[in-house]
Design goal:
Number of domains: 1
Keywords: DNA-binding, Transcription, Transcription regulation
Order of helices and strands: HHHHH
Number of helices: 5
Protein name: Helix-turn-helix transcriptional regulator
Helix content: 55-70%
CATH topology: 434 Repressor (Amino-terminal Domain)
Radius of gyration: 12 Å
Number of strands: 0
Organism: Duganella zoogloeoides
CATH architecture: Orthogonal Bundle
């Protein structure tokens, strides 16, 4: 599903959160894609906020990042509420 999500939106912040967690682990998009059984280009679209991740995708990303889906989403919701930083 495509999104017209600009900076500050939940979709954009979710993607930014995924990117930050990936980079904190020193992972490439390719490695996250392999660990989550997702396509590398789809990881890029999620990180840019150009697609809305499904619940199944949320679950796959969370498992790859060793988080619960709730914890991964919570990081995005907090970022959305608090703004940048």
């Amino acid at each position: 599903m495509s999104a017209d999500a600009g900076p500050g939106s939940l979709v954009h912040n979710f993607g930014a959160g995924v990117r930050a967690l990936r980079l904190a682990r020193g992972w490439s998009q390719e490695r996250l894609a392999e660990n989550s059984n997702l396509n590398r280009s789809y990881i890029g679209e999620i990180e840019r906020g150009s697609v809305i991740a499904s619940l199944v995708t949320l679950e796959k990303l969370a498992a790859a990042l060793k988080l619960t889906p709730a914890a991964l989403l919570d990081r995005s919701v907090r970022a959305d509420a608090n703004g940048p930083g």
